[in-house]
Amino acid sequence: MLAATRHAFSGVHRRAFSTTPSRAYDVSKLILVGRLGREPEVRTTKSDKEFVSYTVATANYPPPPPNPDGTRMESATTWHQITSFNPAQNQYLQTLNKGTLVYVEANFELREADPNANPSSPASQRQIFLRHESIRVLKLPYQQERE
Fold first, then answer.
1. pTM here?
2. Strand-pair partners of 60
3. What is d(CA 38, CA 76) in angstroms, rounded to the nearest whole number?
């Protein structure tokens, strides 16, 4: 059967990639592996909708290249603020503790700066908005492992 299938498609030209235009289903996803920087907290929107906000810290790897004198700067930590609007996930997120090593998948949206905003406010800068999609615990915080 496999030979018949192979023979049937032997004359078909296959492309290595698609040249079709983008669709409405394009994806912008960010995958993070890092530790929770603080306990997830429940907040509410202006329209009284509950959501959970949490922070994941990641280390930039590999570290920066060595300086001319041979010393190497420390890897910098990047803090990512993530928002979840899924009620079932929000209950689970509230059980996680600071320091938990997590694998997070989040959709991201780049928001342009507001030209009319005060230059010292966050609205005057481009922002990346991360919307929680899924999370997996990879390792518990250090104090929970000892118990």
1. 0.69
2. none
3. 18
